Amino acid sequence: MKIVNPAKAGSLESNDIFIMVFPNEKGIEIELESIVIKQFGKKIRKVIEDTLKELEVENVKVIAKDRGALDYTIKARVETAIRRAM
Amino acid sequence: MKLRRTMLFMPGNNPGMIQNAPILGADSIILDLEDAVSLDEKDAARLLVKNALETLDFTGCEVVVRINSIKSDFGYDDLNVIARVKPDAILVPKATEEDIEEIDEILSTIEREEKFKLGSIKLIPLVETALGLENIRETILASKRNIAVLLGAEDLTADMGIKRTREGNEIFYARSKVASVCRAFKIDAIDTPFADVNDIEGLIEDTKRAKAIGMTGKAAINPRQIDYIHDVFSPTMEEIMYAKRVLHAKEEALREGKGVFSLDGKMVDAPVIQRAENIIMKAKLAGIIRE
């Protein structure tokens, strides 16, 4: 799946995550900001990577601002942003 | 038999509310993709609810998803995405006989593709127009998946050009019709939500009025409303004790070979026994009694 436009999904409310995606020729880049980055940073990054993999997206820059989202929310917001960017 | 005393509406695009939904105590929760979601967030809510159904544990709580009208730009996608993660039921807004027939067919196709048991995803038509109310019998008969009807009084009164009041006299006919037809087809009749979440007294009175007419449950729009609605729809201790005495007297009469018997000087016949059995079953389902 190739993305052609910048797009965003989610919100900055608690339990949510705000995702922005941009086309990126350098492959996958993830910039993460989270209120729980010390405890869950690696985990959140992995959920984002796995979702991109599942959607077969290879060239994308993701900026994620997390407000304590659970995995199901992270996955849903990444997928929404990617579909909006196509 | 499943208790549906409360069906709590939850906005489908709010992760915090969705993940708390199973612990709020409602018999059913309705994850809403329709009115609670703005037009530019329909895609996001659909995927959020889909992922929630795949991931979260809703044990003990019936999960219903209100899709957008099948005639709108979103309804088909809602159904196609949500049915594949197997909610207990789909709530169909402004349901008509044709809508229910079409949705039934789409669900059958999805169930076959996903290898779900045929007919396992149920339907709840939402009656919220004058035409919907008058055609309720046909709408119920349009699918065997129908397990309840939910009355939406705000849209109904808007459609009829009449004012919605705290007392609710304007929806007496609608409630009576929904309750009567639902009873005829042995499905649940769910009353419209009470809109003022701060008016607890009004909520209790409104719920009692609905119950007196024959509604079997009520939609809620705030978790604070759940306990009050449950109190009205659950059997009281007095009712349970009387029901137990009726059933005990019935057993004794059977042992003595009596067909008809009396309790406290009143004749007990089949409808009284039936009511007593229903009360005991409801009390067990509500966790009020164990044995």
From TrEMBL, chain A:
UniProt entry tagged with the keyword Cytoplasm: yes
Places the protein is found: Cytoplasm
Top-rank EC class of the record's enzyme: lyase
EC number(s) per entry: 4.1.3.6
InterPro entries in the cross-refs: CitD (IPR006495), Mal_deCO2ase/Cit_lyase_ACP (IPR023439)
Domain of life per record: Bacteria
Keywords: Cytoplasm, Lyase, Phosphoprotein
GO cellular component: cytoplasm
GO molecular function terms noted in the UniProt entry: citrate (pro-3S)-lyase activity
Modified residues (O-(phosphoribosyl dephospho-coenzyme A)serine): 14
Protein name: Citrate lyase gamma chain, acyl carrier protein
From TrEMBL, chain B:
Methyltransferase found in the keyword field: no
GO molecular function, one term: magnesium ion binding
Cofactor(s) needed: Mg(2+)
EC assignment: 4.1.3.6
An example Gene Ontology biological process: oxaloacetate metabolic process
Metal-binding in keyword set: yes
InterPro entries assigned: Aldolase/citrate-lyase_domain, Citrate_lyase_beta/mcl1/mcl2, Pyrv/PenolPyrv_kinase-like_dom, Pyrv_kinase-like_dom_sf
Positions contributing to substrate binding: 66, 128
Record keywords: Lyase, Magnesium, Metal-binding
Positions of Mg(2+) binding: 128, 155
Domain HpcH/HpaI aldolase/citrate lyase: 5-223
Name of protein: Citrate lyase beta chain
